[in-house]
Amino acid sequence: MSDLKTALEGAAGEGIISPDQAMRLLPYLAERNIGAPTVRNGLSQPRDNDLTNPLEDSEAPRFIRGFHDVLITIGIIVLLAGLWGLTSFLGPLPAIIVLAEILVRRQRLALPAVALTIALAQWIITVSVVYLGPADDGRSIMVDWMVMTLPLPPLFALFYWRYRVPLSLAMLLFSLFALLLAAVFYIMGLVTGAPNVVLAYPLLSICIMFAAALGTFAVAMYFDLRDPQRVTRRSDVAFWLHLATAPALLYTANLLAFMLEFGKDGDIFTNIDTGGYTQAATIVVIVAIMMLIGLIIDRRAFVTAGLLSLGVAIGTILRQNNAGLDKVSFIVLMIVGLIVLVIGVGWPHLRRATVRLLPASIQERLPALR
Q: Is the per-residue pLDDT at 241 higher than 80?
């Protein structure tokens, strides 16, 4: 199977067939045992020759090469937890650097690299909150926000420059967006004279947050569209960006819709009349749009991000219809689980049907259909 896949990729590279044709030919030829070994079910057969699922997911970054990575990651977590308890914030940073030099720079272990990047983020945020956090000198909230966020971009930039971990680049971009968002709110506070812009101008603030979420989505799509076959680290960076952007887009869109429908004093899911229906329907529509976006760009984060909101919306509709409170939670779980299964199992088919409705120029730039 690996020889067949290599041959098709070589043919695509030489321009004999297109990459999309190569992806579609692989399962077609595999089903007919073309290029497959004679014995396919013996225990002595190498694992590399097993037939892979032609619908195999290419979305997630490559985390694990074996349980070796899992064992090392467990050791990292336990070690850093112990150091943090014994030395506070003094011990973890040198340990993170030493471990990164050995496990990331030399051995190129993906899962430990993710764990060390998250540990570095926790260390930076903790130290920033403790030493640069809110002060009693009358500083505004946005100034505190900018001061606490300021160390993140340069430190993540150094970490990425040294170790080339895709998650660290994603965190660098997120920290830049957070810093820019704080600066925008700070300038708004200076112009309007409001001590807390978010509370004074909630609708405008939510619009700005929604715009920031759209900005991170645009950056994620920049990385995604430059690697439609998802074979480089650009795809890994896009994965992390989408993972955080999807819930940000979902909840800012929900808040914006509720503000436009009910005003700043509208409480979510507290109206006993038609408000509950309206808000629930709004959430369902927004979640459906998010799922459609996920199908088009082949990112399941846009589906999973909306499951909690979808469950709340379904529960609200059931309660409005006087469903028994003792059964609502189980009905919600059943419906959400069924939706997840249908989308998960039928993902390639649903995506194929959706993407083929788009113009050919857009289809060519999207990840290949499987």
A: yes
